[in-house]
Amino acid sequence: MRALILALLGLLPAMALSPDKLYVLHCMGCHGPQGEGIPGRVPALKGFVGYFTYLPEGRAFLIQVPGAANAPLSDEELAQVTNWLLRTFSSKELPPDFKPFTAEEVRRYRAKPLQNVSQVREALLSRLRAMGLLR
Description:
The chain is built from eight helices and no strands. By secondary structure, it is mainly alpha-helical. It has a single domain, classed as Cytochrome c-like domain (Cytochrome Bc1 Complex, Chain D, domain 2, Orthogonal Bundle). Helix 2 (19-26) packs across helix 6 and helix 6 (75-89) packs across helix 7 (103-110). 21% of the residues are buried.
């Protein structure tokens, strides 16, 4: 009974959720259950998002987009869910030397929100095309 009362009062520590559960709760509504996105509205993650990690600015972009930067997740949770979705939906597109996101990296990127998401995304895509990674 005491545990129930404490839980109701919010005094028990929150249960940690696995990255896949965090995706379901915070990302799937827009990006879809398989990372397919919403054509013309929300970019797909599947078979694509890993390319951004070839560029330092691309890594920052993945964390700075409003849906990630403003998610009600800790820096550690956002790092975990980002690493999970990259490996789950875009493992073939990751660089061979891919380094997982850390909570510290997420904290640094979140401190600098994007002002123009579309322009930054297009600039990154142009650089990835110039590198021969995209058509």
